[in-house]
Design brief:
Largest sheet: 10 strands, mixed
Oligomer: single chain
Bound molecules: zinc ion
Structural class: alpha/beta
Number of strands: 19
CATH architecture of the largest domain: Alpha-Beta Barrel
CATH superfamily of the largest domain: Metal-dependent hydrolases
């Protein structure tokens, strides 16, 4: 876009819950270049003005672990969560190994568009398309670039899939990382599914590629009895030995980890993507989350592609309050902000090399305008925590990397219902091909 994007008469929301009313924000290219009282920033003839009319302007949301495609194929149900890890993996794998790049493109486009309409500017994706890894990743990147969504894309490679060698999956993933190394919107990371289905040889390959490419690694950390039985080792120790942990790496769930393991993760600066809502249904997930919080590890929230970040955040409240009540946590409200903005912003900065997570000069212009007017200056809506007001406020504008992707609630550059139809057709085709429809009916 030529010229400036000027947000007039905004109430600026900070992740600590403070609000400043009567402000204006100037965006030039991908960055925020000016933040000042409204009267100090006039609108010039070539500007695109966003009339906020007092509405809240906040940093974009970040989903630290999602399955944009898988979330449309395999969801959470009682029947599913009651199965053991290996059985769940086998069932999901049978579906994912038949997914084609064109189906990935259609389903990811719809999920990214839905995210943008919810104010999610950055998705940390764990794609699972083992039959055609590089082509599927490239197809998903195309969707992100078309819609203007920020994306970190990794592949959930694994052993144990008939006819599909893990080496080929890791190579395809690495080729994508190389191809998108200079992209300002879409970056690649390496990935594997989880420790229990990654052989020593596969982890060695991932570690070697990580060293060569200098990127993060994305995986499920679910240290349960199933994992230990499969590998004979605790997952954190195993991954530390292979040098999988480190800055820009993402460990999802942190199920079953203890305090010492959480400390190891914290020291390595690996982000732990927690899913507190899912923690209510999975054994070991809540204790893992408590361990991560008690050592102040870098944490963010992940949806796994079948919830909103607000669902996950509200799922965290009960656990956070219980920990505070027993003296294990000092600042429950600050922890809620850390969940949604703190760790995720650090991850974004590590990956894209620009300041993320605040509406301030120099920061990347990933910004959301909510249809919500705060009652006054200072702490937003006294007595009502910020997450209670923002989670129910419609998203009016979503701006990513300086580009308007949602304007007054409407997706720009694509027809939302059209995307939904294409995604439904793709998911239906996968379901028919794999017999999935028989199991869900
Ligand atoms: Zn995942």
């Amino acid at each position: 876009m030529d010229g400036r994007l000027v947000l007039k008469d905004c109430s600026l929301f900070r992740p600590d819950g403070r609000v400043r009313t009567g402000m204006a924000v100037v965006i030039e290219g991908p960055r925020i270049t000016q933040v000042a009282p409204n009267a100090e920033i006039p609108v010039l003839p070539a500007d695109w003005e966003v009339a906020c009319r007092g509405r809240l302007v906040a940093p974009g949301l970040i989903d630290c672990h999602t399955h944009l495609v898988g979330g449309q194929l395999v969801g959470i149900s009682g029947e599913r969560v009651l199965k053991n890890t290996q059985l769940r993996f086998n069932q999901a794998m049978a579906v994912h190994k038949s997914v084609t790049p064109l189906e990935v493109e259609a389903m990811s486009a719809y999920a990214l568009a839905r995210g943008l309409r919810q104010g999610v500017t950055f998705h940390v994706e764990h794609l699972w398309a083992p039959a055609q890894v590089e082509a599927a990743m490239t197809a998903e990147a195309r969707s992100a670039e078309r819609l203007g969504a920020r994306l970190m894309l990794s592949h959930a490679s694994s052993d144990g899939i008939e006819g599909l060698r893990p080496e080929a999956q890791v190579e395809g993933n690495a080729a994508f990382v190389t191809a998108f190394a200079q992209n300002s919107l879409v970056h690649g990371a390496l990935g594997f599914f989880a420790s229990f289905c990654a052989s020593d040889d596969t982890l060695k390959l991932v570690a070697r590629a990580r060293e060569a490419l200098g990127c993060g690694v994305h995986f499920h950390l679910s240290d349960t009895d199933d994992d230990a039985a499969a590998t004979g080792r605790r997952a954190v120790a195993r991954l530390a030995e292979y040098q999988i942990l480190g800055p820009a790496s993402v460990a999802a769930y942190a199920r079953g980890i203890d305090r010492v393991e959480a400390e190891l993760l914290a020291k390595s600066e690996t982000l732990i993507a927690l899913s507190p809502r899912m923690a209510q249904t999975m054994p070991g997930a809540q204790t893992g989350m408590e361990a991560a919080l008690s050592v102040q590890a870098l944490v963010g929230l992940g949806t796994s592609g079948n919830a909103t970040l607000w669902h996950e955040l509200k799922g965290a409240l009960a656990i956070v309050v219980a920990m505070a009540r027993s003296g294990q946590l000092l600042d429950p409200d600050g922890t809620m902000a850390q969940f949604l903005y703190g760790g995720a912003s650090e991850l974004c900065t590590q990956i894209f090399g620009v300041p993320c997570g605040n509406v301030e000069v120099g920061a990347v212009a990933d910004v959301v305008v909510y249809d919500h007017v705060s009652w006054d200056e200072g702490v937003a809506d006294a007595g009502v925590p910020w997450w209670s007001m923002l989670d129910s406020a419609p998203v009016a504008w979503t701006i990513v990397n300086g580009r308007v992707t949602v304007r007054e609630g409407q997706l720009l550059g694509a027809d939302y219902i059209g995307l939904a139809k294409e995604a439904a057709a793709a998911a239906g085709a996968v379901a028919r091909r794999t017999g999935l429809h028989v199991t869900v009916r």
